[in-house]
Amino acid sequence: MNYRLRQATNVLWQGGIIAYPTEGVWGLGCLPFELGAIRRILAIKQRAPDKGLILVAANFDQLEPYLAPLPVANCKAMLDTWPGPVTWVAPAAGWVPMDITGGRSTVALRVSAHAGVQALCRAADSALISTSANRSGRSPARSLLETRLRFGLEVDHIVPGKVGALTGPTEIRDALSGKILRPAARGNSS
Length: 190
Hints:
Blueprint: H1 3-13, E1 18-21, E2 26-29, H2 35-45, E3 54-57, H3 72-80, E4 86-91, H4 98-101, E5 106-111, H5 115-124, E6 128-132, H6 144-151, E7 157-158, E8 171-174, E9 180-182
Parallel strand pairs: 1-7, 3-5, 4-8
Antiparallel strand pairs: 1-2, 2-6, 3-6, 4-5, 8-9
Helix pairs in contact: 1-5
């Protein structure tokens, strides 16, 4: 594990918040069991807690504990898009805190294909909270500089890197109906 990845992992395991590049925007994240860090992220973003947050992972095994039983066909539909830039809203396991679900019976999940996100989740041996690096109602940060200017003093660590090929946040689909809840922004991010 390289030094920068070790630094980010140490911050996560100490209950801290990191900013990191994802498929299309910069994200703010923490470990999903660090409720204090989750609440800090919501405060930084000025985001209502009832909106819920996304969990990203390096593989399905990191997300499976957060899921309630799902019909095989629905689970296969999710797995067929992963790793990749599709977030699925699926029934949550009963123990998942409302700080993640927003008080709903569902949880938003994604197995990311972004190499940096994959490395972070593998190094932390955990899924991560992932929400766009922006104040509520504003556009997300798309560069390291923009992230530093907006959040440099409010996060505990910024992981260097570049966003992926999307021009905005990932697509979101409903795992039970397959309906697209938010279309993906596609295209070259440069």
